[in-house]
Amino acid sequence: MIFLNSLTLLSPKFIKDIIGIGAIDMINSSYGIYTNAMEDFTVTAVSGSNTFTISGAPFSIATLNIQAGGLLVNGKAISLQDATISGNTVTVPKLIPNLDTGDVVVATVIANPRTIDQGLDIQKTVDQNPIWNHYTDPIEIVSEQDLTTGSYVDFGSEIDMRTYNRLGVYVSYDNNNSTGSLIQVVGLDETGGTEFAIDGISSKTLTDEDQNIYYEFDKGTVPIVKVQGKSSTIGATPGDLTISINKIWRD
Predict the structure, then answer these.
(1) Is 1 inside any structural domain?
(2) 102 vs 2, 5, 55, 73, CA distance in Å?
(3) What is the pLDDT of residues 74-99, one digit of tens each?
(4) Between β-strands 224-230 and 182-188, what pairing exists: parallel, antiparallel or unpaired?
(5) What is the DSSP letter of 19?
């Protein structure tokens, strides 16, 4: 029987010489070092073969980096760099001769002790609420509101745009012989506050015919906005707008 104490098994020299220097970086991360010599798990040698099984482990076998492990058979160090694992069975090509009844097998392996499936670890694999996914569904703010001449008038009420930086505007325009129809988005410093033109946002000119069109306005950090419209001239029946909006955050 070969006796190995915990200091020998877990020492940096043992890790470097027997397991491999690359394992040290893994141990310094979220992985841990385990050995059946410390009763972390049970090793069962398959007599007459170059395989052994692992059972009772405190880690998921799926997280096991077997190539970073090391093996002692009757005190002889054997690398696991070419080893493979299927289920809980480890095959060691460098294990020559094959294992025999009575062999003392000490396996030391590197594994992630967490019980969760790393494929479902949203901290590492997927952002479930990415920035590009911050948006609202379109909602109608006005329906067939008439255009007027002169100054811009509000189409819909104030829109709270905090936590969003772009306003999507869906316009259904019923022309009715109106000409020079425009829409714009203005900013407010607070609810019911002063209106400001937003630098970089220009008014949009509608064609002199019926149309459905989408505009997107980058309003920056302005907290409140309004949609406004007007026409240069209107026919016997004023042109009208039906408008829906959605809010978007986009880099």
Answers:
(1) no
(2) 12, 20, 19, 10
(3) 888 888 878 888 888 889 888 878 88
(4) antiparallel
(5) I
